[in-house]
Amino acid sequence: MNNIRVVSSYLEEQRSVAYADFVGKKWIKGFVSTLIKNGYSLNDFDFQFIELPDSINDTETLFQEFVNDNVQLIICAGNDSVYRLAAINRTIPMLYFGTHPENNGLEIIDKQNISGVRLNLPLIWSLKNFSILKRLLPDLEEIYIPIYLLSEFDTPNVRVNHELFRAQKKGFWIPGHSSYIGYKSIHFLSESLGCRYYECPYITRDELETCLGQINPEKTALIGFNDTTLLKGGVDLVLNNTRRNGIPVFWVNNFSIVKAGGVADFSSDFERVGKLIGSMSLQLLRDNIPIEKIMFREDPAEKFSLNLKTCREMSIHVSQEILDSFHVIEE
User: Fold this and answer.
1) For position 11, what pLDDT does the model report?
2) Which of 12, 167, 243, 305 has a C-alpha 20 to 30 A away from that of 55?
3) Is pLDDT above 70 for 12?
4) Which InterPro entries is this protein grouped with (predicted)?
5) Rounded to 10 degrees, what is the CA torsion of 175, 180, 185, 186?
6) Within the chain, which residue ranges are assigned CATH 3.40.50.2300?
7) pLDDT at 15 over 70
8) Is the pTM of this model over 0.85?
9) Taking the domain 123-266+304-330, which CATH number applies?
10) Does residue 294 have a pLDDT over 80?
11) How buried is residue 193: exposed, middle or buried, by Cβ count under 10 Å (0-12/13-18/19+)?
């Protein structure tokens, strides 16, 4: 029986209520469907889900357990787990799906024991997708993105820049024109819509609350990423604050958050991602293809979701043309 461990930082339900498990359910559905299509089931594998510990020492201990248990494949759901495990693991094959905005962190696939699927962060992948914000909010002038400094989404090069800004103690929000901005491409996308762009690198709940409290709610939108789910209570803090102040929230790769009170989610199609991971796993475990021969794959598809209830509550007009841009409509 093949030993597989699925490692993620998004498994602990208490971190973010139900927000962290949405992606997991979708990709696992695709993964299992690939196994079944090929005559297998999860019962044919020693398949365990493991939450990645926070500390380096505990992560090293966990990896040693994998070695002792003769684990043949580690599947990492998200950047946070693959970056931290890759720093330790030189032997066990790993497959992952994760994002690399502006190609940050992409050097990880140079490691001989790692392959996977690159996710595109669909909202910021193209001006066509990003411009949906302006179509929903014609008066939009300012776009805000909070970024959890302790997450791997804030890659080392970006984190250093953010820390330089924080050291100056000149506030929390970094304007897009600053040399301390982390994601210049989002600034360019915002400018293309005639909007100003701001980033807030935060560490604690108190800092996040301060950041949110400094947002001008007029003609504004907030964009969230799943790094916020890694801060306990972070998502609820964002949703409660923005709901109270009437700020439209857009999310990337987590429809369950938008369903709880956001406007729209722009996700990869995680079921299809899971199918790819399933096929790659069978290449490794059934066909005995070495991990270094299993090609890194591109994001297979997008899946956009719109919360019409929130749109009505916020008096956001949604034309049929805009509806046609979404794959899922939540009433």
Assistant:
1) 58
2) 167
3) no
4) ABC_transpt-TYRBP-like
5) -40
6) 2-120+268-302, 123-266+304-330
7) no
8) yes
9) 3.40.50.2300
10) yes
11) middle
